[in-house]
Design brief:
The complex is a heterodimer of chains A (530) and B (198). Chain A is globular. By secondary structure, chain A is an all-alpha fold. Chain A has 17 helices and no strands. Chain A starts with a helix and ends in a 44-residue tail after the last helix. Chain B is an all-alpha fold. In chain B, α1 packs antiparallel against α6, α3 packs antiparallel against α7 and α4 packs antiparallel against α6. At the A-B interface, α8 and α9 of A face α1 and α6 of B.
C-alpha cells in the first residue's frame, strides 16, 4: 500500500490513461487543476473581449463595429468573467487543490460530487457561451439581465440565463462539499481555531454560495418563464414589478462579490506570513472577520439600487449597512500590514502579487465607500467610475490574488519552480498596465462618462486612450506571466520552497495521491515562525 | 485503501442541500408575498377558482407518504426488509395519487384556456394573471421535485430489495427520506397560500 501512496497525483495509476484519467478523476488536486485550465481559457476569451472594447473606445465615434455588437461584447465579457472565472475562481481552483491538504484530509468529503460540480461548470459555461452563436445574436442586456429589457429583447438571453443557472448549481455543490469537508475531515487535533486562514475564508465563502445562490437560481428561472410563458412577475404591462427583479438579483449578486473576494483575502493571509516569516497578526480577528463579511454582506444588496426608486428609509439603511461591511475588510488589511511589521520579508513573486493586491484592493474598497454613500452615488451611478471601482476589486483584488496564489502554490502543483525574474517583469507589466487601464476611468467617470456606452464626447478621449494603452500593457503582462508558468524548464521544487508553515508544505511536491500516508496530528496554532 | 464512510457527513450535506432548496422556493414565496400585498383583493378572488377538495386530498396523500417513509427507515433499522419495501411502495402510490390529481387539476385549467401565455390569461386583471402564474410556477416546480423524489425513492426501494441498504448501512434511505419530507414541507406551505386563503 505504501508504494501506491508514494505516486504523485500527476501520474496515472488507474485503469485509464491520458485525458480519460483526468476526466474520470475524483482527486481534489486534479479537479482543481481542471478548473484552472478551463478557467484560463475563459479568462483569455474574456480578456480578448475586453481588449476589443478598448479598441472600439480608443476614439470617439464608430471605429470597428457597431453599437449592437458592442452591447453583445460587454454583456458576454461580463457573463464570462463573472460567472465562469471569478465566482468559481479561487475557491474552485485553490480551494480544491490546497484546502483538503491544509486541513490534513485525504480528499474532500464527496469526491464524486466534486467531479460532478466540475462537469456542471463546463456544461453551464458551454451553454452560456452558446448564447453567442445560437439564436438571434448575443444577449445585449449586460450581465445583470435587468428586467423588463431582458424579458423583451430578441437576442439570445435564455441560453445565457440558463447557463448562469447551471453554473450556480455547480457553485452550490462545491460550497456544500467544502462545508462538510471542513466540518468533518479536519486532521486530528485541528480545532477550528487551529485551522489555517485560507480554509477559514473558504468556509465563510461556502456558506454564502449555499445560502445566496438559490435565490438567483430561481430568479433566472423566472426570467426564462417570463420570456417563454409571459408569467408577468417582472413585466409592468402584466402587473409585475421590475424593481422586484433587481432585489432578487442583487440578493445573490452582491454576496457573490464576497464569494469572489473572501478566498482572495484568504490567499493573501497565507502568503503574507510565509514571506514575512511572522506569525499572522490577529489570527482570530481575521478568521471571524471572514464570517462577519459573509453575514453582513448578505444585507447590503440594495446599494446597487439607490437610483432605482426605493424609499428614503431603505436607502439610508442599506447605506449604513454598506459602511458596516467595510469594517471587517479593513480589519484584514490592517492585520496584513501589521503582520509584516518587523518581519524578515523576502520579496518573491507571490509576495509581490500580494502587495499588489493590497494596494489595488484598498483603492477599490475606498472608492466603494463613495459609491455606498447616498449623495455621491447619485452623481457617479452608472458611470465609468463604477466600472473602475469594480475592476479594482474584481481584477485588482480577485485577479491579482489569483495570480499570487498561482505563483505561491505552483511549485506544489507541478513540483517545479518558475523563473522569478520573468515573473517579476510580468508583475510589473500587469501592475502598471492595470492602473493605467482603470484609474483614468475613475476620472472620466466623475466627469460624466457613462458606463456601457459605445460612443463618447471628445473631452473623454485622453482618458480612454490612456486606458487603451494600459490595456495593451496588461495584455502583455498576462502573456508574459502565462508563458513563464507554462514553460516546463524550471528546477525541481523542494517540498517547502518558501518556508511555509501550513500542512501542504510538509508533503512532497507534487503531492502523492491521497496527500498523507498517515494523517498528521495537530498540536498547536498555525503560522508558528518564532 | 479502506473505503471512507461518514454517515454524519452525508446527512450534513443533505441538510445543507435542503437549505438551498428551501431558499430556492423562498424566492417564489417572496414574489408571492409582494404580489399578494399589491393585489390582495384579486388574489383573494382568484383563489376561489382552485378546488380546495382536490388540494386537501393531495395534502393528506403527501402527509401519509411522509409518515410511511419515516416508517420504512425504522423497518430497515430493525432489519425488516419486506415491510420497508412495502412502506416505500405506499409512499410511491401516494405520490401517484398526487400526480393523478394534479394532472386533472391542471388539465381542466388548460382546457378552459387558463394557462400562462394563453390569450385568455393575458386578458385578465393583473392580480389574476399573477396569481395563476404563481400557481403554475410554484406547483409546477413542486411537482418536478416530487417526480425527482419518486425516482430517488424507487432506486432506494430496489436497493433495499437487493440488500445494499440494510440495518448497518441506510444513510441513503435517510437522505432520500429527508428529501421526501422537503417535498412534503413545501406543499404544506403551498396548500394554504394558494387554496385556503380565499
Amino acid at each position: 500500500m505504501a508504494e501506491t501512496i508514494a505516486h504523485s497525483y500527476l501520474e496515472n495509476t488507474g485503469k485509464y490513461k491520458g485525458i480519460l484519467a483526468w476526466l474520470t478523476t475524483t482527486d481534489h488536486k486534479r479537479i482543481g487543476l481542471m478548473y484552472m485550465y478551463a478557467m484560463m481559457i475563459f479568462f483569455i476569451v474574456g480578456v480578448l473581449l475586453g481588449e476589443l472594447m478598448r479598441l472600439e473606445l480608443f476614439r470617439p465615434g464608430q471605429q470597428f463595429y457597431n453599437a449592437q455588437t458592442y452591447n453583445g461584447i460587454f454583456t458576454i465579457h461580463g457573463i464570462i468573467m463573472i460567472f465562469t472565472v471569478v465566482i468559481p475562481g479561487l475557491a474552485a481552483v485553490f480551494g480544491n487543490f490546497s484546502m483538503p491538504i491544509m486541513i490534513g484530509a485525504h480528499d474532500v468529503a464527496f469526491p464524486r460530487l466534486n467531479l460532478f460540480s466540475w462537469y456542471l461548470f463546463i456544461l453551464g459555461a458551454a451553454i452560456a457561451l452558446s448564447s453567442q452563436f445560437l439564436g438571434n445574436g448575443p444577449p445585449d442586456t449586460g450581465w445583470t439581465f435587468y428586467a423588463p429589457y431582458s424579458t423583451q429583447t430578441h437576442t439570445n438571453v435564455v441560453a445565457a440565463v440558463f447557463g448562469a443557472f447551471v453554473l450556480g448549481f455547480s457553485s452550490i455543490l462545491t460550497g456544500l462539499n467544502f462545508i462538510v469537508t471542513i466540518h468533518r475531515l479536519r486532521a486530528p487535533g485541528m480545532t477550528f481555531f487551529r485551522m489555517p486562514l485560507f480554509p477559514w475564508s473558504l468556509y465563510a465563502t461556502a456558506w454564502i454560495q449555499v445560502l445566496a445562490t438559490p435565490i438567483v437560481g430561481i430568479t433566472l428561472l423566472m426570467v426564462i418563464a417570463e420570456r417563454w410563458l409571459r408569467i408577468g412577475f417582472f413585466d409592468p404591462s402584466l402587473g409585475g414589478d421590475p424593481i422586484l427583479y433587481q432585489h432578487l438579483f442583487w440578493i445573490y449578486s452582491h454576496p457573490a462579490v464576497y464569494i469572489m473576494i473572501l478566498p482572495a483575502m484568504g490567499v493573501i493571509t497565507e502568503i503574507i506570513p510565509t514571506f514575512a516569516q511572522r506569525k499572522v497578526f490577529g489570527y482570530k480577528a481575521i478568521a471571524l472577520s471572514s464570517l462577519a463579511i459573509a453575514l453582513v454582506g448578505y444585507f447590503v444588496w440594495a446599494h446597487h439600487m439607490y437610483t432605482s426608486g426605493m424609499s428614503i428609509t431603505a436607502r439610508w439603511v442599506f447605506s449604513l449597512l454598506t459602511f458596516l461591511v467595510a469594517v471587517p475588510s479593513a480589519i484584514k488589511v490592517f492585520n496584513w500590514v501589521t503582520t509584516m511589521y518587523k518581519g524578515s520579508i523576502s520579496v518573491k513573486p507571490p509576495f509581490l502579487f500580494a502587495l499588489g493586491f493590497i494596494f489595488l484592493f484598498m483603492i477599490g474598497g475606498l472608492t466603494g465607500l463613495s459609491l455606498g454613500s447616498l449623495a455621491t452615488d447619485i452623481h457617479v451611478h452608472d458611470t465609468a467610475y463604477v466600472v473602475a471601482h469594480f475592476h479594482y476589486i474584481i481584477f485588482g483584488g480577485v485577479g491579482f490574488a489569483f495570480f499570487a496564489a498561482l505563483h505561491y502554490w505552483y511549485p506544489k502543483m507541478y513540483g517545479r519552480m518558475y523563473n522569478f525574474r520573468r515573473a517579476n517583469i510580468a508583475f510589473g507589466f500587469l501592475f502598471v498596465g492595470f492602473n493605467l487601464l482603470y484609474f483614468p476611468q475613475f476620472v472620466i467617470g466623475i466627469m460624466g462618462m457613462p458606463r456601457r456606452y459605445f460612443d463618447y464626447l471628445p473631452q473623454f478621449t485622453l482618458g480612454q486612450q490612456i486606458s487603451g494603452f494600459g490595456g495593451l500593457l496588461l495584455l502583455i503582462g498576462i502573456i508574459l506571466m502565462i508563458a513563464n508558468l507554462a514553460s516546463k524548464r524550471g528546477a525541481k521544487a523542494p517540498d517547502n520552497p518558501w518556508g511555509g508553515s501550513t500542512l501542504e508544505w510538509t508533503i512532497p511536491s507534487p503531492p502523492p495521491v491521497e496527500n498523507f500516508h498517515e494523517l498528521p496530528v495537530i498540536t498547536g496554532e498555525p503560522y508558528n515562525y518564532e | 485503501m479502506e473505503m471512507h464512510r461518514d454517515d454524519l457527513g452525508a446527512k450534513l450535506g443533505m441538510w445543507i442541500f435542503i437549505f438551498t432548496e428551501i431558499l430556492l422556493f423562498g424566492g417564489l414565496f417572496l414574489v408571492y408575498a409582494v404580489m399578494r400585498s399589491h393585489y390582495s383583493d384579486e388574489f383573494h378572488q382568484a383563489a376561489h377558482q382552485l378546488n380546495a377538495f382536490i388540494g386537501t386530498v393531495n395534502t393528506v396523500a403527501l402527509l401519509l407518504s411522509s409518515a410511511t417513509v419515516a416508517m420504512s427507515i425504522t423497518a430497515v433499522q430493525k432489519g425488516e426488509k419486506r415491510k420497508a419495501v412495502l412502506f416505500i411502495l405506499i409512499t410511491l402510490i401516494c405520490a401517484g395519487i398526487f400526480l393523478f390529481n394534479k394532472y386533472f387539476e391542471w388539465g381542466h385549467k388548460f382546457s378552459i384556456g387558463l394557462y400562462p401565455g394563453s390569450d385568455m390569461m393575458v386578458g385578465l386583471k393583473h392580480g389574476y394573471i399573477l396569481f395563476f402564474s404563481l400557481y403554475f410556477f410554484m406547483t409546477g416546480l413542486h411537482v418536478f421535485h416530487l417526480i425527482v423524489g419518486s425516482i430517488i425513492l424507487t432506486i432506494i426501494m430496489v436497493k433495499i430489495q437487493t440488500g445494499s441498504i440494510n440495518a448497518e448501512k441506510y444513510v441513503l434511505l435517510e437522505n432520500g427520506g429527508l428529501y421526501w419530507h422537503l417535498v412534503d414541507l413545501i406543499w404544506i406551505f403551498l396548500f394554504p397560500l394558494l387554496y385556503l386563503i380565499t
